[in-house]
Amino acid sequence: MPFSSDARNKIRETLIRFRKFILNPKVRGQSLERDDVEYGYVGIREKGFKECEISISDGLLDTSGEKYNLDISGESVEFKKGMESEEDSEIELRVLDSYNRNRKQSEVCRSIEGDEDESRHPLVKEVCRLIDFRAAWTPKLEGELRHLLRSLKSRQVCAVLRAQSDERVALKFFYWADSQWRYRHDPIVYYAMLQVLSKTKLCQGAKRVLQLMLKRKIECRPEDFGCVMVSFSRAGDIRKAMQILTLMQKAGVELDLSICNTAIYALVKGHKLEKALKFLERMQVIGIKPDVITYNCLIKGYCDVHQLENAMELISEMPFKGCSPDKVSYYTIMGFLCKEKRIDEVRGLMENMLKDSKLLPDQVTYNTIIHMLSKYLHADEALGFLREAEEKGFFIDKVEYSAVIDCFCQKGRMDRAKELVNEMISKGCTPDVVTYTAVVNGFCQVGELDHAKKLLQQMYKHGCKPNCVSYTALLNGLCRSGNSTEAREMMHMSEEEWWTPNAVTYSVLMHGFRREGKLSEACDLAREMIRKGFFPTPVEINLLIQSLCREDRASEAKKFMEECLHKGCAVNVVNFTTVIHGFCQKGDLEAAVSVLDDMYLSNKHPDVVTYTTVIDALGRKGRIDEATELAKKMLHSGLLPTTVTYRSLIHHFCRQGRVDDLLELLEKMLPKQDFRTVYNQIIEKLCSSGHVDKAYKLLGKVLRTASRTDANTCHVLMESYMKKGNSLGSYKVACRMFNRNLIPDIKLCEKVSKELMLEGKVHESDKLMLRFVERGHISNKCHHAGFGQGVHLA
Predict the structure, then answer these.
(1) In the chain, how many domains are there?
(2) Could you say which of 465, 547, 572, 573 has the lowest number of CB atoms within 10 Å?
(3) What is the Cα–Cα distance from 504 to 84, expressed in whole angstroms?
(4) Which InterPro entries match (predicted)?
C-alpha cells in the first residue's frame, strides 16, 4: 500500500532530524569518540554504550555512492575553500607563483610492491569471494568478513581493493572496513584507493578519500593530489581538477614536476591547449624543467585539435630545449596520421625518427602502426605494413595477424579474412581463440550464422577451445537476427560446453529479448543476471524500463527498478525519471508524484528533467497551481530551468490565459537562468490560443531588443489581429515596430492598409504606408499610384 503524501513528508522530516542527530558531535550531552562522523559512514561509540557499526549490507550493496554524500560541517571547510569558492580561471598560474624551488620534499614510505603476490593469498581470495556474493548477504557472512578483515595485512587490503572489477564496490569496501571496531587503514591503503579511483570517473569518491587523509594528518605527496586531478579530468570537470592545486597549496604540499605534468594532462584532456602552453611557460619561469612526458602531453593536445604540423614542429624543437623526443612522441602523431589515412606522412615520420632522433623503427614501431591502422579500419594499408615488416625480417606473430583479420571482418570482407587465417596456418603461426573469435564475429555481422556455428565447432579440431567471448559473439549474432530464444537455449548449454557466461553475455541476450518485444523474458534474464552476481548498468536498466513504459506497463517498470535498487544495482536519477515519464504518459499523476517522493527517500535527488516531466504532466491535466509550486521547489533546490521547462510552462499557462501568474513565476525563474526569447514565445503562444489582447500588452518587453526574432513575433501578432478582423490592432503593432526602428513586412502591411481602407480608416492606411516611404522602402510614385488617394505630399 503506497504512503500518502503526508506520511512521506513525516518520514522525510524524521530522516532529516535523525541525520542531524547523527551528525551532531555532542548529542544530549554524550561525547562521541574516534572520528564520530566521517563523510557519510558512521562509526559511533558512545561512552558506556555498545558499539554501533554500519552494516556491509548497507554499504557494499549500495553501489550508487549516495550514502556517502553527506557534507560534514567543519571537516571539509578547508577543502571547499580550495575546491568550490574560487572563481578565478587563472588559479593554477597563481599557485605556480608560490613555488619554493629551495624547499625539499619529505619522503613518505608508500611502497605497495608485492600486491600482485598478495592477490594470490588465500585470505585475499576469500574476502573477494565474500564481496562478490554481496547480493545475498546475511549477518553471518558479514561476521565472517569482519573476522577476516582483522587478519588482513595492509598490503592484502590493497590487493582486495585492486582486485575488484567494479571500483564502486572497492570504494564501499574501503568505507566499510574503516568503520569497523579495532581496525584502522594504514596510509598505503589510502594511496592504493586513490590509485584505483584515478582510473575512473568517481571523482567525488577520490575527493572524500583525500579529505580523510588531510583530516587524519596522513602525509600526502603530489601524486595523491594528482590522482584526484586525473579522476576529475576523466569526469570532465577540468575546473575542479585544476582547483586541486589550490587545495594542495593550502595543505602545505610543494609542487613538483609530476603534479605539473598531471595539470598539463588535465588541461589537454579538457581541450584547453592554450592554458596548457601558458602553464608550461610559467613552469619554466619558476624553475621546473619540463621532461619528455610534459612535451608528449602537449603533442597529444596539438593532435587532438588537428594541429599536426605544430605537433611535428614541437618534436623538432625538443632537442634544442634539452629534452629529446622518445618513441611515444612519434607514435602519438603516427596514430593521428593513421586515423586520417596519411600513409606517406607516416613513412616520412619514420624516417625522421632515425635521422633526427636516432630512434630506429623496430618491430614495436611496425606493430604500433599495424594496430593503429586496423583500429581505424584501414585494412589494406595495415596489411601493407605487415608485409613490409615481414620483408625487413621482423617477426609477425598472431597478435598482428589477428588485428588485421579483425579489421577485414569488421569491413565485411570475409574472403580476405579467411585467406589470412589460412596464410597464418601455412606459416606455422597458429591462430588462437582471439583470431577465431574475430572471424566468428565477422560471419555474424554479415548474417552468415551457419558459417559462424560451423567455425565454432571447428575450433576444437584446431586445438583451440572457444571461450565466453567466442560464444557471446555468436549469441549476439543470433539475437540481432531475431533468434533470441535459440541464443537462450545455447546459453543454457554453457555448462556442457565448458564455458561460463559473463555480464556481457547476459546483456546481449537481455537486449535481444527487448528488441523482439519479449520484455518479461528480458526482465527475468536481468533478475537471473543479478542472482549470478552481474549487475546491469543504469543504461541497460533504463532501456528495459523505457520499453516497459512504451507498452503502457509503467507499474511493472517501477517494480523492476525497485528490485534492481534493492539488489544493489546502480539505479540513478535517469531511471527514476523514465518511470515518472511512463506514469505521466499514462495519465497516472498520483503514481508519478509517488515515485518522485520515493526518490527523496532513496537519496536520489531529482534533476531538472525530472521536475520538467512532472510539471508538464500537471500542466496537461490543468493543475497549474501544483505545477507552479513544483517549479518553485525546483528553483529552491538550486536547479536551473531549461528551455524545455520554460516552453512547457508557457504552453500550459497561456492555454488557460493565466498570463499574470506566468509573469509572476518568470520573475523568479529568469534571474536563475536567462531565456532571451521567453516573451517572444509567450506572445506567440497567446496568439495561437486566441488571447491576442493579452499578447499585445507584453509587446513592450519584446521590443526592447528589436532583433529579427522580435520582428517575427510582431508579425505573428499582426496576423492574429487580421484573423480576428481587427486591422487597427495590426496597425498599432506596425507603428510600434517603426518606433523601435524595426521594419514590418511590406506585403503584410499592404494587407493591413487595404483592410483599413475598406473599413474607412483612410488616415491610418495612408500613415502606415507613409512610414515605408519615409524610410525609402517604397517610392513616392508607388505610393501615389497604389495607396495615396486623397493624400498630397509636399
Answers:
(1) 2
(2) 465
(3) 39
(4) Mito_RNA-Proc/Resp, PPR_rpt, TPR-like_helical_dom_sf, TPR_mt
